[in-house]
TrEMBL record:
Subunit comment: Homodimer.
GO MF terms, alphabetically ordered: ferredoxin-NADP+ reductase activity; flavin adenine dinucleotide binding; NADP binding
Cofactor: FAD
Cofactor: binding comment: Binds 1 FAD per subunit.
Coiled coil (residue ranges): none
Stated name of the protein: Ferredoxin--NADP reductase
Reaction catalyzed: 2 reduced [2Fe-2S]-[ferredoxin] + NADP(+) + H(+) = 2 oxidized [2Fe-2S]-[ferredoxin] + NADPH
Record-linked HAMAP family: FENR2 (MF_01685)
FAD/NAD(P)-binding domain location: 5-294
Species name: Psychroflexus sediminis
Binding site for FAD: 14, 33, 41, 46, 86, 121, 289, 330
EC number(s) on file: 1.18.1.2
Length: 353
C-alpha cells in the first residue's frame, strides 16, 4: 500500500504543480497517471508546440514546460505510479481514501486531488475480433518500457508520430521491427518518415504498405498476426511475431472516475469555486481541465491557481489544529524533502515598512 498526504490523479501540468504547492506546506504527494510519462496533454498531444500564455515565459515549448515543472518539484520527491489508471475508490471510516488502479496498485491518502484533465487517454483499438485475448500477452497499446522488446520481434501498426518514433527507437532494441500502415503516406513528422525509409533501406525496419493487421493468433501468448495487403483478402498472409503494438492514437475518457459518486456536468466534475475546488465528496478535490464551475476556463494557468487554493484547504483538513501562515517563497525559501534549501539572502529583500 502506497501512503501519502495528497494522492493526485493525473500528471498533467496541474497535477505536477500541485506537488510544489503541497511541498511548500510540507505535504507529501503521490501521482497516478494512465500514461507512461508525465505531462498530460502537453506531452501526449503537443510537446513541440510553443505556449505563449504562461506568466513570465513569453514563449515556452510544451515539452520544456513539463521538464521545468518536473525540475521544480524534484526536491519534494513525489512518488509516481505511471502507466496505470485510477479505477476504484473506497472511503475509509476515518474519511481517508484507498484508490486502486487497473493493475491493482493500492494508494492510501486522506486527500484525493483529481487532476485528470480531459480524462485518461484510452487507446484506439483496431477492429480485430479476439484482440482482447492477447492484451498484455503480446499486444500492447503503448510502450511503457522499451527494454521489454529487447531481442524480440515486433510488429507496429499506425501512420502517425507514435508509430514512426517507436519504430525508429525499437529498430536498435528489437531483433526485428515491421511497420504496417494502411496507406503509403504517413501523417507523422517529415524527418521521422525519412528516417524510417533510411532504416528500411539498410534492412533495420520492414515496411509493409498499404496493409492492415486483420487477425491475431496464438495460444497463451501472441504468436503471429495476419496481414492483409492492398485491402485484398486473397493477399492475406501470416507473420510470426513476439509482439504487436497498434498505435492508432489515444482518446481521452473520464472513465471510471465518472462512477465515483461525484457530481458530473457535461463530462466534467462540479466543484465549489468560491472556496477550494472541493467536489461534493469531502476530501476529494477536482482541479484543472477536469472540473467545471461558472466561468471555468480550460487553461494551464487556471489549473495552477486552482491547485494552489486546493492545497491550502487540504492542509487545513490534514492539520486542523495547525495555523498556516502564508509566506512568499522569496522570504520563506523552499526547503525540499531531500534536505535542499533555496533561500534569498535577507540583504536583497527591502523592508516594506
Ligand atoms: C493542441 C492544444 C494546445 C493547447 N494550448 C494551450 C496553450 O497555449 N495555453 C494553455 O494554457 N492551454 C493550452 N491547452 C490546454 C491545456 O493543455 C490544458 O488546459 C492542460 O493540459 C490541463 O492540464 P491538466 O493537468 O488539468 O490536465 P491534462 O493535461 O489533460 O492531464 C491530465 C492527466 O490525467 C491523466 N488521467 C486522467 N484520468 C486518469 C485516471 N483515471 N487514472 C490515471 N490517470 C488519469 C491523463 O492520462 C492525463 O495525463 C492546449 C490544449 C491542446 C489540446
Amino acid at each position: 500500500m502506497i501512503k501519502t498526504d495528497i494522492l493526485i490523479i493525473g500528471a498533467g501540468p496541474t497535477g505536477l504543480f500541485t506537488v510544489f504547492e503541497a511541498g511548500l506546506l510540507k505535504l507529501k504527494c503521490h501521482i497516478i497517471d494512465a500514461l507512461p510519462q508525465p505531462g498530460g496533454q502537453l506531452s501526449e498531444l503537443y510537446p513541440k508546440k510553443p505556449i505563449y500564455d504562461i506568466p513570465g515565459f513569453p514563449e515556452v515549448k510544451a515539452g520544456q514546460l513539463v521538464d521545468n515543472l518536473m525540475e521544480q518539484i524534484k526536491s519534494f520527491q513525489p512518488g509516481f505510479t505511471l502507466g496505470e489508471r485510477a479505477k476504484d475508490i473506497e472511503r475509509q471510516d476515518d474519511g481517508s481514501f484507498i484508490v486502486t488502479t487497473d493493475e491493482g496498485t493500492k494508494h492510501h491518502a486522506p486527500i484525493v486531488a483529481i487532476a485528470g484533465g480531459l480524462g485518461s487517454f484510452e487507446p484506439r483499438k483496431p477492429p480485430i475480433n479476439n484482440i482482447s485475448k492477447f492484451e498484455n500477452k503480446g499486444i500492447h497499446y503503448m510502450v511503457k518500457d522499451p527494454e521489454q522488446f529487447r531481442d524480440k520481434s515486433v510488429v507496429i501498426a499506425g501512420g502517425g508520430d507514435s508509430a514512426l518514433d517507436w519504430s525508429i527507437y525499437l529498430a536498435d532494441v528489437a531483433s526485428e521491427v515491421t511497420l504496417v500502415h494502411r496507406r503509403n503516406e504517413f501523417r507523422g513528422a517529415l524527418e521521422s518518415v525519412d528516417r524510417v525509409k533510411e532504416l528500411k533501406d539498410i534492412g533495420k525496419i520492414k515496411l509493409i504498405t498499404p496493409a492492415e493487421i486483420v487477425d491475431v493468433h496464438g495460444d497463451e501468448h501472441l504468436e503471429s498476426v495476419s496481414i492483409r495487403k492492398n485491402n485484398n483478402p486473397e493477399e492475406d498472409y501470416s507473420l510470426e511475431t513476439d509482439y504487436f503494438i497498434p498505435l492508432f492514437g489515444l482518446s481521452p475518457k473520464l472513465g471510471p472516475i465518472a462512477d465515483w459518486g461525484l457530481e458530473i456536468e457535461k463530462n466534467a466534475i462540479k466543484v465549489d469555486n468560491t472556496l477550494d475546488y472541493q467536489t461534493n465528496i469531502p476530501g476529494i478535490y477536482a482541479i484543472g481541465d477536469v472540473n467545471t464551475y461558472p466561468g471555468k476556463l480550460k487553461l494551464i494557468l487556471c489549473g495552477f491557481h486552482e491547485a494552489t487554493l486546493m492545497c491550502q484547504s487540504a492542509f487545513a483538513k490534514i492539520h486542523p489544529n495547525k495555523r498556516n501562515v502564508l509566506k512568499y517563497t522569496t522570504v520563506g525559501g523552499v526547503t525540499g524533502f531531500d534536505g535542499t534549501k533555496k533561500e534569498a539572502p535577507k540583504s536583497v529583500i527591502r523592508s516594506i515598512d
